[in-house]
Amino acid sequence: MSGEIPRCRLCDADESQQQVRADSVFGGFAEHKFWQCAACDAVYLYPVPSIEDEKRFYAQEFEKFMAVRSKGERDWSNADAHKQTNQDQVTRRLPFLQEYIHPEKKVLEIGCSTGFMLDAFREAGMQCTGVEPSGEFLPYLRKQGYVAAELLDELPVGEQYDLITHFFVFEHIRDPFAFLTQTYGLLADGGVMIAEIPCVNDPLTSLYDIPAFEAFYWSIAHHYYYSPAALAYIMEQMGYRYRLVPEQRYDLSNHMHWMMAGKPGGQGKFSDVFSEKLLHEYRESLKESWKCDTVFLYIWK
């Protein structure tokens, strides 16, 4: 496949509208690249890993892969430690979810890992179900008392949910249109689906020239990297009522650390020097310009 120019995996635009966005893929092989489509703005992995290789990766290798990528930011050594080191994620996400968290409502989290978000939903009185393909995390979820399935197809037939969430899952999905069709069908009337998705406009790749970040950012675990324009293209094709909300997870210290040291781990490093006002204004400026690292996607039924 060396030298082959693909058609867009998202919109099927022809080869003339494709160009390489990243020629090195973390965890991939020499032939793997991320291509960007001028027609729909999607950034996609090509060649595409086989379904069999992908299933084996998530069942047997994902935790080790993520431990290498996280560089100690999250503890992937065991389920309890993973849950504990993700409590900050719960705190950060809840403001984006709070309006839709109600006692007795049914929530489904897809890709729920160790259930740290499900814990917050359960504490609020919601009826919780999870989907998790990990060979380690799925048994752990069940031991915690959650109804949990390995695949969406294994959920009870006819069950519908008032709230469906998935955090940093959509970029892993091979066929986003089929996935959205299936998950939208699981939404109850009046329900909402909320997804947190990495934004390819991340300033570390769209504003700054940091070779070490380029070598780190583009992951073999992702089928796509989405811009707001690419997400809007998908939503318009599906005909959904939706909203995109910008979010910036990583702070100015993290960005400075990448520039100086060429590696992750700088979150909050200079918080004793940078004022709260500076940090806030930097974050808000990135969000306002959509040069941010994350997008929240809301879909209503």
Features:
301 residues, alpha/beta, Rossmann fold, seven-stranded mixed beta sheet, four-stranded antiparallel beta sheet, 21% strand, globular
Structural summary, described in words:
With 301 residues, this protein is α/β, with parallel strands linked by helices. The protein has a domain at 51-167: Rossmann fold, CATH 3.40.50.150. Helix content is 36%, strand content 21%. The protein has eleven helices and eleven strands. A seven-stranded mixed beta sheet has the order 6-5-4-7-8-11-10, with helices on both faces. A hairpin with a 5-residue loop joins strand 2 and strand 3 (43-46). The longest helix is centred in the first third of the chain and has 20 residues, at 51-70. The radius of gyration is 19 Å and the shape is globular. The mean pLDDT is 94.
CATH architectural group of the domain at 51-167: 3-Layer(aba) Sandwich
Overall radius of gyration: 19 Å
Report helical residue fraction.
25-40%
Main beta sheet strand tally, sense and closure: 7 strands, mixed
Structural class, from helix and strand content? alpha/beta
Q: What fold name goes in the CATH topology slot of the domain at 51-167?
A: Rossmann fold
> What's the β-strand tally?
11
Ranges where pLDDT stays below 50 over 5 or more residues in a row are none
Indicate the overall shape.
globular
Biggest sheet strand order reads: 6-5-4-7-8-11-10
Count up the helices.
11
